[in-house]
Design brief:
The chain has three helices and two strands, in the order αββαα. It has helices spanning about 5-10, 45-55, 55-60; strands at about 35, 40. The protein binds zinc ion.
């Protein structure tokens, strides 16, 4: 089988390299744009949700 076809079937990309998109470790969304204390979040909504879930809002209030 041609390598391009093989790669495409295996990874969905013709060159066989999967782009550097890492799913958000907090909610599983693909974009990570917000950084907070060394953690990365896909959005401010996600960050706020995480802060609430971890009672962070209370600690810094
Ligand atoms: Zn997220």
């Amino acid at each position: 089988m041609h390598p391009v076809i093989e790669n495409t079937m295996r990874t969905g990309y013709a060159d066989g390299r999967i782009p550097d998109v890492v799913a958000c470790e907090h909610c599983g969304e693909d974009d990570q744009v917000v950084e907070f204390e060394g953690l990365t979040f896909c959005s401010t909504d996600c960050l706020v949700r995480w802060l609430l879930e971890n009672d962070y809002a209370k600690k810094i209030a």
